[in-house]
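Project outcomes to date are best conveyed with an example. Our students and postdoctoral researchers have been running inverse folding experiments weekly, and each run begins with a structure described purely in C-alpha cells. The record below, which covers 811 residues, was selected by the lab manager from last quarter's runs and is presented without edits.
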C-alpha cells in the first residue's frame, strides 16, 4: 500500500497474506508491459479488536510482480524420512539419512541435497523393455541458501500429482521444481517447448541492506558440463565462453557495458554435455557472471564514454586475468533486490520500476515478507546441438525472413568511409565508383550526419541540396536507399519542441552529469532525450514522421541504431510502467523498427519473430578478439544460438575508428571471412587501399555469388525453427569433442565448411573436418576423409579455405 494514495499493487498470481487478508485474484487485461487498472473488493476475515474499515480498493496491476511473493504457511503434509511419491510422469524419492531428494522423469534425474547442491543426469534406456538405464552426468549446480535456512529441507507431498515438487528450508528459502509439461501461464512466455528437464523457482528473503546485494542465486559448475556457449554478444566474444572471465554484473543490453556485455542478449546457455540452462528473461534485476574473477571496482557510462575503458571479459590465463585472480569456474544466475552494486557503477543502478515501488505501513510490514525469486530451467539433452534446438523452440518464430535483396547482394554504407562528413556529392560519387566497377549492390545506406538536427528527420539542405535528384539517381543505379535513424531527439530541434509538451520523451526527476532532467549523453556531443516507446501516441508520431519522409523523398527503409536501455536517464520515468529495462528494447523494435520492410537493427529482446536484419555492434579495424576480426565468427555463431539467424556482420574492414584504417591484408581477410555469412556490408572501399585489395575483395564476393542458392535456401528454412544459417562446427557432429574449441571455422548448412584465415601474416592454417568425405572447393580434385585435422593447409592471401561434403553413394 502506498501511504499517499492508499493503492495496493498485487501480482496476477493468487497470494495469501497470513491471517490478514483474503485472497485477491487479478488478471492481466492488456498487453505485456502496459499498465491496467481493475477493481476488486478485499473483505478481511472476522477478528477481534478494532480494524481499519473495509472498502473497495483500486488495485493497480502493472504486470506480474515476480520479485516479491507472500509465502503462505505450509498446510500440506511433507514426505517422511524415506518415501516414494509418484504422479504425472514424476517420481520423488526422499532419503533423509543421506539428506537427498531424487526427482525422476523419463529422460532425466535431479538429485538435490540438504545444502542446496544439485546434480542433473541424462537417462537413456539401453534395452527395449527399459530394464537397463544408463545415466550421464550433465550438470553440477548449487542453490545459495541464505542465512537462517534450516540445515534440512522438507518436501511438500501433495504437489507431486500436479507435476511439481515443493522443497523448503524453513521459512527462509523455498524451491519449486516443475515438469515442463506442467508449466502454468506465468512460464509459457519463456519456457514453452522445453523437454527432458525441470523448471525451478527459488525464493529467498530480500536483503534489506543499502546495496541490496543479497540475491536468489543459482551457480553451475562450468567444468562439470564441458564447454559453454550462448548468453549474448560480448566485447570480447570468447568461444567457448570458458576462455573468458565474465565478471558478475547487471544483465541487460548495453553499448560496451559492465562485464563486457554488448547489444544483444538472451539468457540461455548450452554446454557440450547436453545441458541447457535458461533464466526467465524478465527476472528482476538479473545479474550474471561466468568464470568471474575477483570483483573489481568499475564505472560505466554510455557510448563513447566507455571506449577508453578495458574491453571485457578478460581472457582466462592472460596477463589481465592474473591481475584479478583466477576465475571462479561458475555460471552465476542471480535475481537481486536492485541494480545497486558495491563494485559496478552503471546508468541504471538506481532505477526501480514503479510497479515494484510499494510501501506498507508498520503493521503490514510485520505480516508481509518481501522476497526475491529467480526462475530458471535446467534440461539434460542428448548433446549440445539438441540443447540449442530446444532453446530455439522456446523463442518466437518469424513468419518470413528479411527482404531477399539484403541477403543476395552487398549493402553499401557511407559510415566508415565518410563518417559525419557525408554529403550528397560524396554519396553519388561513391555510388558511381561501385557501379563503374560492376559490383553487386542492394542498399545504399546514408549514415550520420544527414540530418541538420537530431530527431527532425529532415535532410540538411546545405549538405543535401537536391534529395529527390539524389534518390532518383541511386534508384536508377540499382540501389535501395536507407537512412540512419536512432530514437533520440536533441533539444534545439523542431521535433523536441513538438514532442516534449505532448509527453513523447522519457522523463527523469533529477539531473544527470549536469544535464537537464531527462537528457542523456551518448556517442555524439549533443545531449538528447529518448523516445518514450511505451507511449503509443509517441511511437505513432515517430513512425508517422518516418513514413512521411519516405513518401516525400522515396526513401526505401532505415538503419535503426541504439535502443538499448543504457541510453535512458537514471531513474527514468515512462508513460506506461515497464517491469524490466529490456521492455524498452522490445517495444522499440516492435513498435518502431518492425514497421518498415527494409530495416536493420542492432538489439532486441525476444524479438526473434520479426523479419529484421540483426546487425552486429560496431567492429574495430583490428585483428584481435577484442571486437576485431577474430570476434566476427564467434559473434555470428552466438547470434544464431540466440535465435537471430539473419545476422548482418558489421562493415568489412571495421569502422576505422580512432584514425585506424585496415591495411590490405586485414581488408581482404575480412572480406573472405564475411563472404559466406548471411549478409555482407561494405563501407571502406577496397579500391581506396589498393588495386590488389580491390581485386581480392571482388573475388571473395564472386565466391558468395556461387554459393547464393545455398544461403537463400537456408535463410528461407530458418523461419521454421530458427535453425542457424551459419553453424558452429559441433552442429555437424555434436559428439565430436574436437569441434567444441573451434572459434575460427563455421559451417554453412550441413555440407559446407568455411575456414577463413584470421591471424595477421598467416599463409597457412589448421583446418578440422568432421566425419565424412570432403573436397577442397579451391582444388576439387583433392578429397579428404573427415574426423581429422589438416595441418598447415596452404592459404595464401588469395585463398579462402572451403570444403564441400561429398554425398554418400547408397550401396
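After processing, the design step wrote out the following sequence:
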Amino acid at each position: 500500500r502506498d501511504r499517499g494514495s492508499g493503492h495496493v499493487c498485487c501480482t496476477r498470481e493468487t497470494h495469501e497474506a497470513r491471517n490478514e487478508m483474503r485472497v485477491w485474484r487479478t488478471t492481466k487485461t492488456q498487453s505485456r508491459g502496459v499498465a491496467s487498472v481493475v477493481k476488486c473488493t478485499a473483505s478481511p476475515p472476522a477478528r477481534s479488536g478494532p480494524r481499519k474499515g473495509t472498502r473497495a480498493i483500486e488495485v493497480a496491476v502493472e504486470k506480474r510482480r515476480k520479485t516479491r511473493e507472500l509465502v503462505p504457511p505450509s498446510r500440506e503434509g511433507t514426505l517422511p524420512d524415506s518415501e516414494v511419491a509418484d504422479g504425472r510422469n514424476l517420481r520423488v524419492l526422499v532419503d533423509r539419512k543421506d539428506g537427498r531428494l531424487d526427482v525422476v522423469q523419463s529422460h532425466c534425474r535431479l538429485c538435490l541435497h540438504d545444502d542446496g547442491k544439485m546434480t542433473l543426469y541424462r537417462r537413456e534406456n539401453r534395452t527395449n523393455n527399459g530394464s537397463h538405464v544408463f545415466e550421464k552426468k550433465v550438470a553440477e549446480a548449487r542453490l545459495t541458501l541464505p542465512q537462517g535456512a534450516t540445515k534440512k529441507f522438507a518436501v511438500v507431498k501433495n504437489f507431486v500429482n500436479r507435476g511439481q515438487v515443493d522443497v523448503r528450508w524453513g521459512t527462509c528459502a523455498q524451491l519449486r521444481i516443475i515438469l515442463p509439461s506442467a508449466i502454468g501461464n506465468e512460464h509459457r512466455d519463456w519456457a514453452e517447448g522445453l523437454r527432458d528437464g525441470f523448471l525451478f523457482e527459488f525464493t529467498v528473503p530480500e536483503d534489506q541492506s543499502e546495496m541490496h546485494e543479497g540475491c536468489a542465486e543459482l551457480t553451475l559448475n562450468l567444468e562439470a558440463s564441458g564447454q559453454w556457449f550462448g548468453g549474448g554478444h560480448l566485447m570480447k566474444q570468447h568461444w567457448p565462453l570458458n576462455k573468458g572471465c565474465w565478471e558478475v554484473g547487471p544483465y541487460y543490453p548495453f553499448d560496451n557495458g559492465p562485464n563486457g556485455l554488448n547489444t544483444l542478449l538472451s539468457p540461455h546457455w548450452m554446454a557440450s554435455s547436453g545441458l541447457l540452462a535458461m533464466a526467465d528473461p524478465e527476472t528482476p534485476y538479473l545479474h550474471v557472471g561466468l568464470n568471474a574473477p575477483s570483483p573489481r571496482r568499475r564505472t560505466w557510462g554510455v557510448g563513447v564514454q566507455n571506449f577508453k575503458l578495458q574491453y571485457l571479459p578478460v581472457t582466462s590465463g592472460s596477463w589481465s586475468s592474473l591481475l584479478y585472480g583466477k576465475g571462479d569456474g561458475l555460471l552465476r544466475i542471480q535475481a537481486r533486490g536492485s541494480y545497486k552494486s558495491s563494485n559496478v557503477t552503471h546508468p541504471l543502478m538506481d532505477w526501480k520500476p514503479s510497479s515494484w515501488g510499494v510501501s506498507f505501513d508498520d503493521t503490514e510490514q510485520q505480516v508481509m515478507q518481501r522476497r526475491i525469486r529467480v526462475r530458471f530451467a535446467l534440461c539434460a539433452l542428448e548433446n549440445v546441438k539438441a540443447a540449442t534446438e530446444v532453446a530455439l523452440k522456446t523463442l518466437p518464430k518469424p513468419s518470413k525472413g528479411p527482404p531477399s535483396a539484403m541477403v543476395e547482394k552487398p549493402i553499401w554504407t557511407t559510415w566508415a568511409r565518410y563518417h559525419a562528413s557525408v554529403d550528397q556529392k560524396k554519396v553519388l560519387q561513391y555510388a558511381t565508383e561501385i557501379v563503374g566497377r560492376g559490383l553487386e549492390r542492394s542498399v545504399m545506406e546514408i549514415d550520420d550526419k544527414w540530418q541538420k538536427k537530431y530527431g527532425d528527420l529532415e535532410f540538411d539542405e546545405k549538405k543535401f541540396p537536391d534529395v529527390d535528384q539524389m534518390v532518383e539517381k541511386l534508384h536508377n543505379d540499382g540501389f535501395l536507399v536507407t537512412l540512419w535513424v536512432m530514437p533520440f531527439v536533441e533539444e534545439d530541434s523542431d521535433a523536441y519542441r513538438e514532442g516534449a509538451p505532448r509527453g513523447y520523451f522519457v522523463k527523469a526527476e533529477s539531473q544527470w552529469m549536469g544535464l537537464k532532467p531527462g537528457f542523456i549523453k551518448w556517442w555524439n556531443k549533443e545531449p538528447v532525450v529518448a523516445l518514450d516507446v511505451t507511449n503509443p501516441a509517441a511511437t505513432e508520431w515517430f513512425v508517422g514522421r518516418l513514413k512521411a519522409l519516405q513518401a516525400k523523398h522515396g526513401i526505401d527503409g532505415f538503419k535503426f541504431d541504439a535502443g538499448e536501455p543504457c541510453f535512458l536517464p537514471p531513474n527514468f520515468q515512462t508513460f506506461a510502467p515497464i517491469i524490466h529495462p529490456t521492455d524498452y528494447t522490445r517495444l522499440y523494435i516492435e513498435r518502431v523498427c518492425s514497421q518498415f520492410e527494409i530495416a536493420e537493427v542492432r538489439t532486441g529482446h525476444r524479438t526473434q519473430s520479426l523479419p529484421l536484419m540483426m546487425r552486429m555492434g560496431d567492429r574495430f579495424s583490428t585483428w584481435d578478439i577484442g571486437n576485431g576480426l577474430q570476434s566476427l565468427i564467434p559473434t555470428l555463431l552466438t547470434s544464431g544460438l540466440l535465435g537471430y539467424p539473419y545476422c548482418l556482420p558489421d562493415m568489412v574492414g571495421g569502422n576505422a575508428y580512432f584514425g585506424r584504417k585496415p591495411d590490405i591484408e586485414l581488408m581482404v581477410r575480412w572480406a573472405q571471412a564475411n563472404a559466406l555469412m548471411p549478409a555482407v556490408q561494405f563501407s571502406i572501399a577496397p579500391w581506396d587501399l589498393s588495386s590488389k585489395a580491390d581485386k581480392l575483395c571482388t573475388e571473395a564476393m564472386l565466391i558468395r555469388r556461387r554459393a547464393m542458392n545455398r544461403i537463400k535456401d537456408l535463410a528461407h528454412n530458418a523461419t521454421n525453427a530458427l535453425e542457424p544459417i551459419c553453424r558452429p562446427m559441433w552442429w555437424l557432429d555434436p559428439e565430436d569433442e574436437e569441434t567444441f574449441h573451434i572459434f575460427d571455422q563455421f559451417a554453412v548448412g550441413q555440407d559446407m565448411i568455411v575456414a577463413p584465415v584470421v591471424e595477421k601474416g598467416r599463409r597457412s592454417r589448421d583446418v578440422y573436418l568432421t566425419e565424412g568425405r570432403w573436397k577442397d572447393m579451391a582444388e576439387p580434385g583433392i578429397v579428404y576423409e573427415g574426423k581429422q585435422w589438416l595441418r598447415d593447409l596452404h592459404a595464401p592471401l588469395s585463398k579462402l579455405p572451403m570444403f564441400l561434403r561429398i554425398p554418400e553413394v547408397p550401396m
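The radius of gyration is 28 Å. The first helix runs from residue 185 to 191. The training component of this project remains on track.
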